[in-house]
Structure to design on (627 residues):
């Protein structure tokens, strides 16, 4: 989903509110830990699902829901790299660039994507469809080169295979 | 030790991994599943399970190789505080991809191991911290946990014994440092994943300041087999002081990369040249990092070594996480080291100066050597920095960066010197040919900056 779609789904740019289903899930999460704060990472995941990405209003919503300060939530959120961020495209292409993948040609994958999409690592296409990210070892080095597209791993990539995967995305 | 017979080795941990139903509870039960846990809970006192695992010499598969039973025995027996078992499924050491197979294809083997460990340390609550990228493993585990709750394998009355054990999956979100056990615990508490000074060790004061054992996925997956097949069987596999089946992850320049289940102590050459089909494209072996990118590098001449904790330690490196990264003779070691250093600099949590600055300096200096702007002194400068990083920080990420760096610089020094020499040729050309400067007229510092500017156009 693009940021615009996400914002629309979340009911505009105003304050966010978790759905009833998400609130039930949060209650369940609280029951799994002796202190509420421990549920912060899973609740951020829920916010990611509900609002499409973690942005300012999503952070405020999480903070309100959990009774902790937005500053604290923001501090924790920024420590981690894997959440969808404000401005991320509909598809986040995470190309592994760590040594084992580098030994098997991940650089070609990055170059190919840069050319095909006309963007560099960390950037998003103007239509909001693709974000390109270089990431560290995805734990799939035997099937290098590897790209994670949103949740899915694509392994043993060739440039042709990569093109076919991108072409087939809805 | 006689050479291990890896060819006739019958798989243990991955025995069922290729079966299409391997993740199903019914499949697991019909192949003797949960018998080990049943035995532990009904026939052994917790202390007896600890003694058994101690006697088996099972050593941790997460990286440090610490004896599992010994770690458990540090948990105080009489304490009013709850105790926790935490499964380390962060699997983020570059070159490691073994736990993923267990999580995705044999989740009940892991849950059974969790039950045995939880019983041994008397923990009624367990968490499995899985890296955020492993969405599939997370889903498979969630489903398996639900199945286990539905059939009374998890919950208030485990296998009808009255023992309570709750298990919750907890997803990380992309941070290597959350694999370090105290960083992991900080993250699990809902904070930034900052490691903490030890002592106190987690066994005494860990999660929510309560006694906590952190164990790797593969370590736990061994437990059901130790319970059902016995200590003697386990110790018959590989070296006495750290035996058992071992998952080795081979990546890089081999014909058949993959996860291989082998007896501990297999010769590294057999692994590479026999099981993995040798070096790809008919090239020659140049170097191997045998235990994840934090381990010291071995040259091709040093690869005649048994893959077990003590043999690799004797060679000055380590088994670590079992991530075997193979490099052929086309590998540019300057490039390879730069890649490794970029990783550690990126992943340093920044709490300790030697680590935060050291990883940054190393990346920068090796980066300039790589770009042809290095100085001969840079090599020793890097070695000095490595020296200042080892053993001086809160956690061992700093050491993990220094080990590969120091060993690659020493063992492949010639390549770095050559790059510097070539670069100096380039530099001289820039200096004399360009309009910038009179050589010798400016300080070294300014010279460097101008060369940099010239280099970047
Ligand atoms: C920087 C760093 C990263 C680590 N990453 C992992 C990891 O991804 N998975 C893991 O099991 N252990 C990892 N470890 C080792 C853990 O700190 C800990 O030793 C291990 O989980 C203990 O389990 P074991 O005794 O069963 O091996 C890491 C250690 C360090 C210093
Ligand atoms: S050694 Fe590095 S990663 Fe470990 S606590 Fe210190 S700064 Fe953080
Ligand atoms: S290095 Fe790319 S998946 Fe491990």
């Amino acid at each position: 989903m693009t940021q615009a779609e996400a914002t629309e789904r979340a009911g505009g740019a105003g304050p966010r509110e978790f759905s009833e289903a998400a609130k039930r899930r949060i209650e369940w999460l609280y029951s799994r830990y002796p202190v509420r704060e421990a549920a912060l990472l899973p609740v951020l995941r829920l916010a990611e699902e509900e609002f499409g990405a973690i942005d300012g209003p999503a952070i405020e919503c999480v903070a309100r829901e959990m009774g902790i300060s937005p500053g604290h939530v923001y501090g924790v959120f920024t420590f981690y790299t894997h959440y969808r961020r404000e401005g991320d495209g509909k598809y986040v292409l995470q190309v592994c660039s760590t040594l084992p993948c580098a030994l098997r040609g991940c650089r070609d994958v990055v170059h190919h994507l840069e050319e095909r999409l006309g963007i560099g690592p960390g950037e998003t296409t103007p239509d909001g469809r693709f974000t390109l990210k270089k990431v560290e070892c995805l734990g799939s080095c035997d099937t290098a080169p590897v790209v994670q597209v949103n949740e899915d791993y694509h392994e043993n990539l060739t440039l042709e295979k990569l093109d076919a995967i991108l072409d087939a995305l809805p | 030790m006689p050479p291990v017979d890896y060819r006739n080795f019958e798989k243990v941990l991955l025995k069922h991994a290729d079966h299409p139903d391997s993740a199903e509870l019914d499949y697991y039960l019909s192949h003797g599943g949960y018998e080990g846990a049943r035995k532990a809970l009904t026939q052994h006192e917790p202390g007896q399970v600890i003694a058994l695992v101690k006697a088996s010499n099972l050593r941790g598969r997460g990286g440090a190789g610490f004896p599992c039973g010994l770690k458990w025995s540090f948990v105080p027996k009489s304490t009013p505080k709850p105790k926790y078992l935490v499964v380390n499924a962060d699997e983020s050491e570059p070159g490691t991809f073994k736990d993923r197979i267990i999580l995705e294809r044999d989740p009940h083997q892991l849950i059974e191991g969790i039950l045995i460990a939880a019983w041994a340390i008397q923990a009624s609550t367990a968490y499995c911290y899985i890296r955020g990228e492993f969405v599939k493993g997370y889903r498979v585990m969630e489903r398996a946990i639900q199945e286990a709750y539905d059939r009374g394998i998890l919950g208030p009355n485990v296998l009808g014994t009255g023992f309570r054990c709750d298990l919750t999956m907890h997803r990380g979100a992309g941070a290597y440092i959350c694999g370090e056990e105290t960083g992991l615990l900080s993250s699990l508490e809902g904070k930034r994943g900052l490691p903490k000074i030890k002592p106190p060790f987690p066994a005494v004061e860990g999660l929510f300041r309560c006694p906590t054992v952190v164990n790797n996925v593969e370590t736990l997956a061994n437990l059901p087999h130790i319970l059902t097949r016995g200590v003697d069987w386990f110790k018959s596999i590989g070296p006495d002081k750290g035996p058992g089946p071992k998952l080795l992850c081979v990546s890089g320049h081999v014909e058949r990369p993959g996860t291989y289940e082998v007896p501990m102590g297999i010769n590294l050459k057999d692994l590479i040249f026999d099981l993995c089909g040798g070096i790809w494209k008919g090239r020659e072996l140049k170097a191997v990092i045998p235990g994840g990118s934090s381990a010291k590098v071995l040259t091709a001449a040093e690869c005649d070594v048994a893959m077990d904790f003590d043999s690799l330690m004797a060679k000055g490196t380590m088994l670590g996480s079992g991530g075997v990264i193979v490099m052929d003779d086309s590998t540019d070691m300057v490039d390879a080291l730069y890649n490794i250093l970029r990783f550690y600099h990126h992943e340093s949590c920044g709490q300790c100066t030697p680590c935060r600055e050291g990883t940054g300096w190393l990346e920068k200096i090796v980066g300039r050597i790589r770009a042809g702007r290095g100085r001969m002194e840079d090599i020793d400068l890097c070695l000095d920095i490595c020296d200042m990083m080892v053993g001086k920080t809160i956690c061992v990420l700093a050491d993990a960066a220094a080990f590969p760096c120091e060993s690659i610089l020493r063992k492949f020094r010639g390549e770095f010197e050559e790059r510097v020499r070539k670069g100096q040729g380039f530099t001289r050309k820039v200096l004399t040919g360009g309009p910038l400067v009179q050589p010798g007229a400016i300080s070294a510092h300014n010279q460097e900056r101008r060369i940099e500017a010239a280099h970047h156009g």
User: Anything to note?
Assistant: Chain B touches chain A through 53 residues (CB under 8 Å).
